[in-house]
Amino acid sequence: MKRFFDAFNNLYTVWLVGLAVIAYFKPSTMLWFDKPWILWSLAASMLGMGLTLRLEDFRKIARIPGAVAVGFGSQYLLMPLIGWGIATALKFEAGLALGIILVASCPGGMASNVISYLAKANVALSVVLTLCSTILAFFFTPFWTATLAGNRVPVDVLGLCLSTLQLTVLPVSLGVLIRWKLPRTADRMGACGPTVAVIAFTLVTGGIVAASADSIAENFGRLILAATLLHVIGFAIGYGVSKLFRYPESACRTVSIEVGMQNGGMAAALARAHFAAMPLAAAAAVFSGVMQNILGGFIAAWWKRRSTESEK
After folding, report:
1. Contact 85, 233 (CB under 8 A)
2. Euclidean distance between CA atoms 148 and 83, whole angstroms
3. Residue 137 half-sphere exposure toward CB, CA atoms < 13 A
């Protein structure tokens, strides 16, 4: 069974793109997957992440504080400004600009841990960075969204904080608590965690693409351009800043992947929940989620063929 789940998870991009294409051309197939389903699915994937975390993962933060600080700073200081810069330079209207800024202000996603593994990066560092950015997303995501997009659209900061808490901190904390108190139960539940996350974001993508099919058709080129720029710059910034501080190659790869890959599912859910009148915001988030997984897959394949210092 484990082999089946692993094989299924490795085809994540195939399921993601495949269902997105189906939902785009046949929206009726996925219109049923609306707001309540989206929120519960993402909460379930975050619970799965919490179930995989051990107290040792928290201790690792103290062992690699510099790399964690560089990754976290790049994630929550540079990426939101890059998203704002792209939206401003390309002169996007409010909805599309909001979507790009919201994605850039979100934490790293679970997919980054998988890509780090495939790229022969530091998986432990990847998990720690994802954990840190996810737990503090309830503050940084609303803060940057309000700061950078508040002059374009009204932003309910408190509502965003509460939604982010419900989507990230609470389910992750519950998963950690189950892992601590009921380790055997956590093992049984956690074995399906990555698969649940794959299914959840694939369905979220399909549901939002179906609901935003017309908006996507009208802005297809701009969506691809914005999403590609955001993530390519993110990968480059993460790698470049880490190299500047002379971290090992495996750590540089990890920070690059963590900075370049955001939780697109979370951004899409927040956009649907708080900016429903602007379908382009959710469409931009979903497009970003698809593009970052495609780009991350290419980067992982490139790095996988190139050994790190420890292997040499």
Report:
1. no
2. 9
3. 33
Tell me the CA distances in angstroms from 299 to 41, 98, 166, one per residue in order. Answer: 28, 27, 32
Q: Where are the alpha helices (DSSP H) in the chain?
A: 2-10, 12-25, 35-51, 55-63, 65-73, 79-89, 94-104, 111-118, 123-135, 137-149, 157-164, 170-181, 183-190, 193-211, 213-218, 220-244, 249-260, 264-274, 279-304
Q: With contact defined as beta carbons under 8 Å apart, do 45 and 110 qualify?
A: yes
Closest CA to 165 of 133, 136, 198, 202: 136
Q: Are 192 and 257 in contact (CB under 8 A)?
A: no
Give residue 301's identity as a one-letter amino acid code.
A
Q: Hey, is 191 helix, strand or coil?
A: coil
Domain residue spans of the chain: 33-304
What's this model's pTM, rounded to 2 decimal places? Answer: 0.80
Under CATH, what is the fold of the domain 33-304?
Na+/H+ antiporter like fold (1.20.1530)
Give the pLDDT confidence of 207-253 residue by residue, as tens digits.
878 877 887 888 888 988 999 999 999 999 999 999 998 888 888 99
Pick from 167, 169, 223: nearest CA to 197: 167
CA 18 – CA 33 distance, rounded (Å): 16
